[in-house]
C-alpha cells in the first residue's frame, strides 16, 4: 500500500472547517465566547461541574500542579509508562517524582504497589498521586481514592487517552473519566492523535470551586478583573480618588505568578464541533479494536493488551491506543515501516530517560514497566482507518511472523 498508515491521526470534516472560518470572521480570535462555550459543552460531556480550556495537555498538568499546591521538595507518585508531562509537571513546581510500577495485565499504575510504597515510608512523605488512564483504559479511581484518603493524598487524573471511557463503581454506577467524583483534578489533551483535536489544546476538569478559581487565575498570567477578589484599595485603583464608590472598569490585579496558557477561540470552535463527533468516533475505535481482537485471539506470536473477547464489564475502554506485545518488536516495527505502516512505541519507561536517571533511577527499578517496554507496539487506531487498511495491517503482521 502506497498510502502511509500512521498509528493515529485527526479527523477534520467540513463542519469543523466552517466553524473555524466563522470564528475567524467574528470579533474574537481569543478570549471570546467560544472558549466558554467549549468549556461548558465539555463539562456536560464528562459530567463534571467545571472545565478550564488551556493551550495544551502539558499546560493543563502544570496548572493542576500549581493549583493543588505542589512546592519545593514535595514527593508525588506517578507511573513510568506515560508521556513525560505526567511527571514533568511535578518538576516544574520543584517537586520530586517518585515512580511506582505498573500492573502487567492492565498496564496502569499498580494500586497495591502504591500501597506498599506508602506503607514503607513515614506518613506525610507523599503529597499526591498522578494516575494515568493509559491507552484509554480507566484507572479505578474509587479504589485509588480510598487509598489516597487513608494516607492524606490528593489525586490528579491524567485522562488524556480516555475521554468517553469509564469504570463502574461499587454501587454499579458509571464513573466517567474526568468527572471529578474521585479525583481532585483531571486533564485532557486535544493533540491531533487524540479523540478530540484542536491542533494543540487541553482541558482541566474538577468539581472543586476553589481549585477552579485558582486555575482561572494561573491560566491568564495570574491576573484577575473580578472586583470581589481585588486586594488593593478602591482609592488606589481609582488613582487616589477618595470619592469613588466602585473599582474602575480598567482595573485588574496581578495576584499570582501565572502563565499565558489560554486556548484561542478558533481552537475552541474546532473543539466544539469535534466534541459533537466524539461518541461516533469512540464507537468506531471500539469496532477497530474488536477487529484486532479477533485477528490476534490465540495468535502464537502476538499478545493483545486490550482484548474485548475477554470483556470486563467493570470498565469501558476509550482505545486511544491498541497495544500488542511481540518478541521481535524491532523486526516487526521495521517490517511495518517498509509496508508504510507507522506503528509506534508507547512508552519508553520514563524513569530511564536521562533526565530522570540523574535522580538515581536505574534499570531494574520498575521491572514490569521495563519488561513491557521490550515488547510493546501500538498499532494504527483512529476512526478514519478503514477496514481495508486495517486488514492490510493485520495481514502484514501475519506475513512477518510467517517468514
From TrEMBL:
GO terms under biological process: polysaccharide biosynthetic process
Gene Ontology MF, one: transaminase activity
Pfam family, one: DegT_DnrJ_EryC1
Modified residues (N6-(pyridoxal phosphate)lysine): 194
Keywords per UniProt: Pyridoxal phosphate
Statement: the UniProt record of this protein carries the keyword Iron-sulfur: no
Residue positions of the active site: 194 (proton acceptor)
Listed PANTHER family: DTDP-4-AMINO-4,6-DIDEOXYGALACTOSE TRANSAMINASE, TRANSAMINASE
NCBIfam families reported in the protein's UniProt record: PseC (TIGR03588)
Protein name: UDP-4-amino-4, 6-dideoxy-N-acetyl-beta-L-altrosamine transaminase
Biological source species: Pedobacter cryoconitis
Amino acid at each position: 500500500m502506497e498510502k502511509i498508515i500512521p498509528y493515529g491521526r485527526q479527523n477534520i470534516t467540513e463542519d469543523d472547517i466552517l466553524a473555524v472560518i466563522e470564528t475567524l470572521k467574528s470579533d474574537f480570535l481569543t478570549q471570546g465566547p467560544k472558549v466558554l462555550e467549549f468549556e461548558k459543552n465539555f463539562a456536560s460531556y464528562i459530567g463534571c461541574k467545571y472545565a478550564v480550556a488551556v493551550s495544551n495537555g502539558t499546560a493543563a498538568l502544570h496548572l493542576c500542579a500549581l493549583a493543588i499546591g505542589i512546592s519545593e521538595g514535595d514527593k508525588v507518585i506517578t507511573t513510568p509508562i506515560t508521556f513525560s508531562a505526567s511527571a514533568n509537571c511535578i518538576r516544574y513546581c520543584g517537586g520530586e517524582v517518585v515512580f511506582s510500577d505498573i500492573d502487567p495485565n492492565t498496564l496502569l499504575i499498580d494500586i497495591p504497589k502504591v500501597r506498599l510504597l506508602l506503607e514503607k515510608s513515614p506518613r506525610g512523605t507523599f503529597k499526591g498521586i498522578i494516575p494515568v488512564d493509559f491507552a484509554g483504559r480507566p484507572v479505578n479511581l474509587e479504589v485509588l481514592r480510598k487509598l489516597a484518603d487513608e494516607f492524606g493524598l490528593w489525586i490528579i487524573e491524567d485522562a488524556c487517552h480516555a475521554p468517553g471511557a469509564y469504570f463502574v463503581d461499587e454501587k454499579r454506577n458509571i464513573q466517567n473519566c474526568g468527572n471529578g467524583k474521585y479525583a481532585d483534578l483531571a486533564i485532557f489533551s486535544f493533540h491531533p492523535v487524540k479523540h478530540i483535536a484542536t491542533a494543540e489544546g487541553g482541558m482541566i476538569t474538577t468539581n472543586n470551586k476553589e481549585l477552579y478559581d485558582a486555575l482561572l487565575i494561573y491560566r491568564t498570567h495570574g491576573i484577575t478583573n473580578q472586583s470581589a477578589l481585588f486586594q488593593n484599595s478602591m482609592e488606589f485603583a481609582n488613582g487616589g480618588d477618595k470619592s469613588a464608590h466602585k473599582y474602575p472598569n480598567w482595573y485588574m490585579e496581578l495576584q499570582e505568578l501565572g502563565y499565558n496558557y489560554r486556548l484561542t477561540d478558533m481552537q475552541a470552535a474546532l473543539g466544539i464541533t469535534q466534541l459533537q463527533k466524539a461518541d461516533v468516533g469512540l464507537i468506531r475505535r471500539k469496532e477497530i479494536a474488536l477487529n484486532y481482537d479477533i485477528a490476534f485471539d490465540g495468535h502464537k506470536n502476538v499478545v493483545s493488551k486490550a482484548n474485548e473477547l475477554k470483556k470486563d464489564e467493570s470498565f469501558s475502554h476509550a482505545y486511544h491506543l491498541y497495544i500488542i506485545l511481540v518478541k521481535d518488536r524491532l523486526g516487526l516495527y521495521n517490517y511495518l515501516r517498509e509496508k508504510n505502516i507507522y506503528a509506534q512505541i508507547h512508552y519508553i519507561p520514563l524513569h530511564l530517560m536521562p533526565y530522570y536517571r540523574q535522580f538515581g533511577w536505574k534499570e531494574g527499578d520498575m521491572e514490569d514497566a521495563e519488561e513491557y517496554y521490550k515488547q510493546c507496539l501500538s498499532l494504527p487506531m483512529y476512526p478514519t482507518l478503514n477496514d481495508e487498511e486495517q486488514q492490510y495491517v493485520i495481514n502484514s503482521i501475519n506475513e512477518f511472523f510467517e517468514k
